[in-house]
Specification:
six-stranded antiparallel sheet, 24% helix, globular
Length: 386
């Protein structure tokens, strides 16, 4: 399994990634949804073939951690039995789709997702591994701030549109042509926007690339919905997963309620149809819990690239970050847990923590080499208290 050693791409189930605690096996739920049997089965597989820890990622996927070379094949067999495995690694890498969790029975979201999944499986598009699609077809958009390169949305009047990420307007499409139009935008990008196997749509357009006239439109997308928080919604109960990681027992407990689970890219999950908030241990149920404002990657010793235990530091600082400020603690400069800007970004290095305010791990720090214990003793330095 030489593929497990490759760095700089997103892992999958068929092409896992080596980390400090073993192989990371990413599971991409079809339609962004797991039924109760799949949830229970995944919990069992994580316990039996991994170290029992399950990540909830910013791409609305699950990751089983601590998988060994010997246990990878039986894990794949288990995923296949749960109908959670793609036919091959290339098809898996193309199936990078965010689905709004706020769909309702009888609307077009799940049908669009299934059609797009099938079309991607049958295509031969050589997409970059981080290239993705979003189906955000509610009357207000909830995925606008999340990573996607081609978006199927609605306009203010409720009509479907296909929009390239970074373009202000989208092209109005009939229901039957939405997926074909989305793939046409992706094909144009493959022909013009990939450099050294990488590339993103918004960056391509910002650099001056112009969509062909047939793929452009003048439809303004629907307004953006306020950020989702833990609480009850018409579709069910939304709960947070602290730092995006839970023990297998939490997933098994959620499965025991009999409710399906809808994935989100916000390190939250929606327990479908639930009318009361879950009481399972380890879940964030309060809408303004400070832990919701803190993002941390796996960190050391779980990740071999990390220079520090990010989650221990994030937990120590969660109560100290005032207001609505967001804190991102990254174990290295890659920023795997959060690619965007945050009010406060701490980057672990071999010489301590670098501090970026109002930026990301790619921006220049204003302070370097901060001591971990010193930050915990006096967190005001993060907000400019010195």
């Amino acid at each position: 399994m030489s593929a497990a050693a490759i760095k700089g791409w997103c892992p999958g189930a068929l092409r896992p990634m080596q980390s400090g605690d073993g192989l990371v096996v990413r599971v991409r739920p079809f339609g962004g949804r797991l039924d109760a049997a799949q949830m229970s089965g995944l919990a069992h597989l994580a316990e039996r073939h991994g170290n029992g820890l399950i990540d909830v990622t910013s791409r609305a996927n699950l990751q089983i951690r601590g998988v060994s070379e010997a246990s990878h094949r039986p894990l794949l067999d288990g995923l296949a039995q749960l109908a959670l495995l793609d036919p091959d690694a290339d098809a898996e890498s193309r199936r990078n789709i965010l689905v709004t969790p706020f769909w309702r029975d009888g609307d077009e979201t799940q049908a669009l997702a299934a059609e797009l999944e099938d079309a991607l499986a049958e295509s031969a598009l050589a997409l970059p591994t981080k290239f993705g699609f979003a189906i955000d077809d509610g009357m207000s958009r909830v995925l606008a701030g999340n990573s996607a390169d081609v978006r199927i949305e609605r306009d203010a009047a409720g009509g479907l549109i296909v929009r390239a990420d970074g373009a202000r307007f989208g092209r109005s499409v009939a229901r039957g042509e939405a997926v074909a139009s989305a793939l046409a935008v992706a094909r144009w990008f493959v022909a013009s926007g990939i450099r050294d196997g990488r590339g993103r749509m918004a960056t391509h357009l910002a650099a001056g690339a112009i969509l062909p006239e047939a793929l452009r439109g003048e439809a303004e997308p629907a307004p953006i919905m306020a950020a989702a928080r833990p609480g009850l919604y018409p579709q069910g109960a939304m709960v947070g997963i602290a730092f995006g990681q839970m023990p297998h027992t939490t997933l098994d407990q959620l499965a025991g309620s009999g409710h399906a689970l809808r994935m989100t890219p916000w390190r939250m999950v929606l327990s479908e149809g639930r009318r009361t908030m879950p009481s399972e241990s380890g879940l964030i149920t309060e809408p303004y819990d400070p832990a919701l404002r803190v993002i941390a990657c796996s960190g050391a010793p779980r990740c071999r690239e990390a220079h520090a235990d990010t989650r221990a530091l994030a937990a120590a600082l969660a109560q100290s970050i005032g207001g609505a400020a967001q804190l991102h603690v990254s174990g290295c400069a890659k920023g795997c847990a959060h690619s965007g800007a945050a009010a406060i970004t701490l980057i672990a290095t071999a010489k301590g923590f670098d501090l970026v305010r109002g930026g990301s791990t790619r921006d220049a720090p204003i302070l370097r080499g901060l001591d971990r214990d010193g930050i915990v003793r006096d967190p005001s330095i993060l907000m400019g208290g010195h």
